[in-house]
Amino acid sequence: MKKALTPIEKFKEGDSIQGFYLCVQKNLRHTRNGDLYLDLELRDITGHISAKIWDSVADLNEKFESGHAVVVSGDVESFMDRPQLVIHKINKATVQHYSRYGFDPALVVPSSKKDPNKMWKDIERLINGMKDNYLRTLVNNIYQANKSKLMIHPASVNMHHNFRSGFLEHVLNMAQIAKKISPLYDVDRDLVLGGVLLHDIGKLIEINSEYEAEYTDKGNLIGHIVIGRDIIRDAVKKIKNFPSDLAQKMEHIILSHQGRYEWQSPKMPSFPEALLVHMIDILDAKMNLMDIALNEDQEPGKFTNRHNYFRIPLLKKDEPE
């Protein structure tokens, strides 16, 4: 690819463009004359656009599916006073084949502003600093076995940290909070840290971490809390002489971290470490939700509208002078 990559917000009628986008809709249709064409919607982090494929439909239809990141070249036209992209070439884009040409998933889906590689190293240091050998081994085994997913997974589908690498950002924030405040209370610091790092581990199975996050069948039918408890149980079985009381406490932290029955929590926190994990989870989640509400608001004035998680006007941050 020799041309510069063009984000959707820069599309202008008459431009020939190329770039990387997310195909969020794909429909095979017929023209009035009975000819096949592809009707698409493409999106990146700057906007979205309707797109059409009129030529070589059968061949190009085989190259990608809805939900794929795609590499595209085409011409921007106008249809009913709106921009429309007529695609001449399209293919599925993967990091393996297209990173050399500038493809980064962060171009097509919202991603953490923090470097996932640095976050991973920070989490590894926290794990290696755990003094309890059993908990350190448990957390390390689970994290190493799931590294590829953990690096890109969102923390939720449509709530807090619902972006690429959001899971890592959330647990790292929580772990750093736990490290600072655990000494203020009479708690087992390693148990709190282990609970923080594993409390949402079931979301690796509950949520499909492709470009468009969605719940899996197992996520809808069972949910991340029970899935997470099962992951802990399976991992504990592989660690020789893992204390049964410690395993039970870890399971309880997983089962109680939501903190309320009405939030689908099977148990309420029943000892200090479980309560602290729950409180730190709520703290970081709500701070992120407020950050999202403030960043997404387009209302003029000092306050946001009420259409946010908190359902109240939020005071905006002072603009830098």
Provide tags for this entry.
12 helices; 7 strands; alpha+beta; two-stranded antiparallel ribbon; 39% helix; 2 domains
Would you mind describing this structure in some detail?
The chain is an alpha+beta fold and 321 residues long. The chain has 2 domains: 8-107, Nucleic acid-binding proteins (OB fold (Dihydrolipoamide Acetyltransferase, E2P), Beta Barrel), CATH 2.40.50; 116-296, Hypothetical protein af1432, CATH 1.10.3210. The protein is built from 12 helices and 7 strands. One of its GO terms (biological process) is rRNA 3'-end processing. Residues 167-286 form the HD domain.
The chain-level mean pLDDT equals 93
**Strand ordering within the main sheet:** 1-2-3-5-4
What is the CA-CA span between the terminal residues?
41 Å
The oligomeric status of these chains comes to single chain
Strand content: 15-25%
| CATH class categorisation of the largest domain | Mainly Alpha
What are the secondary-structure elements, in order, as H or E?
EEEHEEHHHHHHHEEHHHH
Strand tally, please? 7
**CATH architecture label name of the largest domain:** Orthogonal Bundle
User: Can you count the helices?
Assistant: 12
Shape: elongated
Helix share bin:
25-40%
